[in-house]
TrEMBL record:
Belongs to the V-ATPase D subunit family. GO terms for cellular component: proton-transporting V-type ATPase complex; vacuolar membrane; vacuolar proton-transporting V-type ATPase, V0 domain. Keywords: Hydrolase, Ion transport, Transport. Pfam families: ATP-synt_D (PF01813). This is V-type proton ATPase subunit D, putative. The keyword Repressor does not apply. PANTHER family: V-TYPE ATP SYNTHASE SUBUNIT D. The lineage of its organism: Eukaryota, Sar, Alveolata, Apicomplexa, Aconoidasida. One of its GO terms (molecular function) is hydrolase activity. It comes from Plasmodium falciparum (isolate 3D7). Its EC number is 3.6.3.14. It is an enzyme of class 3 (hydrolase). GO terms for biological process: proton transmembrane transport. InterPro entries: V_ATPase_D.
Amino acid sequence: MGALDESTPVPSRITLQLMKQKKKSAFQGYSLLKKKSDALFIHFRDVLKDIVKTKTKVGEEMRNASFSLAKSVWAAGDFKGQIIEGIKRPVVTLSLSTNNVAGVKLPIFQVNIDPTVDVLGNLGVAAGGQVINNTRENYLQCLNMLVKLASMQVAFFSLDEEIKMTNRRVNALNNIVLPRLDGGINYIIKELDEIEREEFYRLKKIKEKKSDKLKDSNIDTDADGDYNASKRQYNYACTQKDDDIIF
């Protein structure tokens, strides 16, 4: 087993379980981020389509509003100064809300019109009143569409940045973290298998040595037993008397 650096995991059962748990958590994070990226990209494409359509409509509405203003000026004269003098407080205000899309908060701008404020007053009573009201409605419609377009463009850039960041995380998990964890797990498994083989070989050698010692001990015991048996037979033969021999 070679020398281990700081990034090499220690081969043990506990480390193996920890590495497997980390891999499971990393894979779950990868799956969630991949789903988030897909959901954001779908919403991103929808926003892009709406932006293209809204820009086309805004161009048409702006042309209609400009044409209405020209007709109003022709019918009632230049009334710009009268409107500015009659404004005491704002008629149109913007409010901000958020829309949560896959954990990303997208801003939504909304136009609020105060109906209690009468900007026109007596303007156009003598002539051109209906044309001026039509011009007002056309410009309010243009304003609503421009505010909607602004909301979509802000959402477009926010989604673009979030998708890029999410994809970087997905790629990091898929190409760096998960392969590194797989490599660590495979390394630990190989090292543990090698340790088990070494332990099995060591136990086998110990068993063989014990068996050899036991055999040597049995041989010595048998030799001592044969010697003692021969000695006992000799002593027994010496102690016996033969009655047929007379000296």
